Amino acid sequence: MIALLLAAIQLVPTPAPPMGTPTPGSISERAVLRSGIDAAQSRASALGATLGVTIVDLTTGASAMDNGDANLPMGSAQNLIVTALAYRDAEAPPQDVVTRALLNDDAGAAKELIGLAGGADALNAELRALALDAIFIAPRDGGYASPNVLARFLSALAGGEFVPPPETKSLLDLLSRVALGPARLRAGFPPATRLAHVTGTAKDGIVDAGVAYVNRHTMIVVAMLGGTHGSDADSDAVIAAVARAAADAANANF
Prior knowledge:
Elements: H1 2-7, H2 27-46, E1 50-57, E2 63-66, E3 72-73, H3 78-89, H4 95-103, H5 107-116, H6 120-129, E4 135-136, E5 144-145, H7 147-158, H8 165-175, H9 185-188, E6 194-202, E7 205-214, E8 217-226, H10 232-250
Antiparallel strand pairs: 1-2, 1-8, 3-5, 4-5, 6-7, 7-8
Helix pairs in contact: 2-10, 3-5, 4-5
């Protein structure tokens, strides 16, 4: 599954290093993932919302998804993609701008980041060239993405295939300090879990997505909720349920 997820990212001119062929994960891990995502979907349905989920265990190859190709709002989660493209293409953007955009959800810093990276049109053209065409950057946190392609981006980032290793480490370390959305993915993982993630809130949805290091597993977890009619707490609880599915799967006997 990992090979399929990463194959579509055309990281030219620098080819991605070989990653080997992971096993597809045990039956128990896949069953726990499926059961957990079904539980999260039940919560989303009660809110009249669309839940898009993609979970990939980079350690075992197990994966599960629902509405993986749906276009859902990213909100300020798009700041991570803009930052990664800026690191990839040019001189690193000012660290204070990156920190304010990713840690503080600062609208001014996000606007500056897009400008430093050449503007939304240039960013979207580059995403098309990288075969990340289901990610669309827009000003004022108006971008959209599909869970599958956002997971593909995060897989490449976590594997050091999107930006050089020093920038990869810097970004993942920074994302591990994100304290926004504490009732979302963070609430569904055990307290000691290292979670390098980015959150976003738009008028028509919320998102939390990142890399979780749990029980010696490295897992990509993307949860995007669109069109919810529930309270903020109810919506956050749906995202937390996705994290619990991933954590439970990492602890499954296999």
